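Q: A reviewer asked whether we had any structural model of the full assembly, not just the individual parts. We don't, so I'm hoping you can provide one. Inputs are below.
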Amino acid sequence: MSLVRVPVLRCGRTVWDRSRLPEAEVRGRIGRLQQQMQQARLDALVIYGNAYMPGHVTYLTNFVVFEPRKAALLVLPADGEMQIMIKVASRDMVFIRDYTFPQAVVADDLGVSLKHHAREAHLGHGRTIGTIGTQLMPRSLYASMHQTFADCSLRECDDLLLRLRRHKSEIEKVIMSEGLQQAQQAFGRVREETTGGTRHDFVARLDYQLRMAGCQDVDILIGGSGRSSLGIGGSQVLEKGKLISVYFAVLYLGYWVEAGQTFMLGHGSHRLRDDYGRAYDKLQESLARVRPGARASDIAVAREFAKYGPGQGMGTDREERPFLLEADEALAESDVLVVRASLAPSPLEEIFLAQMLDVREGGYKLLGEPLSAELITV
Amino acid sequence: MGNDAELELRLQKIWAQAVPRQFDALLVYSSPLKSYFVHYVSNYTLIGEGALVAILPDREPVMWITEEWDLDRARQESWLGEILPSKNLANSAVEFLGRTPSRIGAIGLEWGAVGFAEDLHRVFEGRLVEATEIYDEAAFIKTPFELQQIRRAAQMADVGFLRAWEACREGLREYELAAEIAFALRHAGASDSFNFLYSGTRCSGMVLARDKELQAGDLILLEITPANQMRTYSAQLIRTGMLGEPPAEIKGKFEILTEAMEHSLALVKPGALSSDIARAQNEIVARHGYKEYCRPPYMRSRGHGFGLGRFELAEGVDIPLEAGMSFVVHTEQFFPDAGYLALGDMIIVTENGCERLPQVEPRLAVKK
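A: Here is a predicted structure for the entire assembly that you could use as a starting point for your response.
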């Protein structure tokens, strides 16, 4: 179950803000991964990211794959500097080398570049090569990788990096919290200005505010007001007395955050306010069970309130572990996740709520502002 | 939301390519990386993990989507009458098609993850052949409906540029300028957009928006590409401007771009080759002494299409132009003594020449 769309280009603010994400933090991650490699007796890791799931690459380089046609490959030796191969035009490299580490190179063909690098780095006969994210590769590149390492022992090692990524550092939580607060404030401004207009107009105004707040990528779905599911814009007029439900996910300094808000335009029925209260209460019940060690099945809202899925972890990917749909998945301290609840009071209305949190000892800390317990009307 | 006539026309174009290749069924797949494959035969914009359409010659297509919650929207938006949820697209497809089709063309599979591609090949036991080229060839010539979508996208691009130029001022950050462009495009109806820009005194390439503030004397290069419903219905507008009076040297270089683009556009007509258009630009640039900068790594192509049926305008790419093709003709040129300057117009090839879509004039924009 997924809400993800990939744009033709992530063309918002594209920077490495070293004041927020110090290079030392990223180098520290690389170092910890290399330690794990040494323990696992791996000679090198091949790590892949694309525009759908850029997270492994972003986590180790700050680089977010910004276009579906492009992808990135990293080759990390157990000891030594990482090779970063990115499929971009050569004239983009001046920009790229400021956006990620300066050793990044252009790769017109990732398979050819990988083969060339493997030869130069003596990753040949008898070596043990771990692979991460390579199940995302297209068939041709996957086959090319296997051919390059035909004389090596290849081993899928996604867990090595997934474990590191899952435990969010304080720096990561600050970035995600800041991104979410910016996003929520932007939403609040747009909501307060809304007097009507179309769904498409609302989405355009929210998209603008989010990009002005420094978001690199923005995805907005809108529902209610004549539609009982989240959808893409639309020419339908936002009507007074009707609910407007909004899902928005933003990419901020390499990290994804999500919010789900529902409000009413003008005054409507008490029934809708009560329904909002029901969805809100269900979400709070779910949050009350959050603590390290709690199972996803204990936390996830009941199925009838989980139309879009009960939620999951977020970070350098929009959807990452822990997945609340996986019943036995246990939460851990420093997981950062989004928890959702939804309710369709009628075939033409919808309530969608989503709250992000950081799992802490004994419970959790909210990321960003708490949802309103009462239905907001404008 | 039906458009039976347009769907029928597209299916005819697709089968015209598929039948000579002896395909008796087609499977069209979209991963989140490329939603336009499924969109082309369904008018459905993908949200979530994936969608698959089965096309048979003697019945209406069937579509499966992975997000059951999105069924209502899919059924409202799509031209197809039969849309079903599926937790396993490969299994749904093989259960539906059964053993009868002996040779099945797979469209879009190269953009899927290896696991899905392997699954699909496995369940069809050797009957599947990857054949995305069928789609591209079917989409080379746009239908009248598609051309209208592209014309509308070109209008959006004009709006995007005008808002961008109005917003440009000293102190505006590049990402704020990018936000202005994205808003203007979205407000005008764009479903997505692909926008690059540059600000500074010497462009090494148009890139993504940074924190840099625009300054007096900056060149501003804008590549604005709204998509109207899907990537294939995109129109690109490329303009160069300056915050302040451009020096004579820049004006002179820009005149070379203008001359190159106008000269190449004059050659666009049915029967001309895509390479002719590129060569025409290269000749003009070379005549002014910049021949060695008309090839990689400085210059890749002199134009291209978008999405399905995309081709490049480059020497060595000999695609005969036909009425109904649509692409951008752009003169992005690196000058060793000035950096990149850029100019580009979206066109439609007509029976006698071309229809230029932008209303924004192809001149060096100046903001004093």
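A: Points you may want to mention in the reply: Chain A touches chain B through 54 residues (CB under 8 Å). Chain A has a mean pLDDT of 95.
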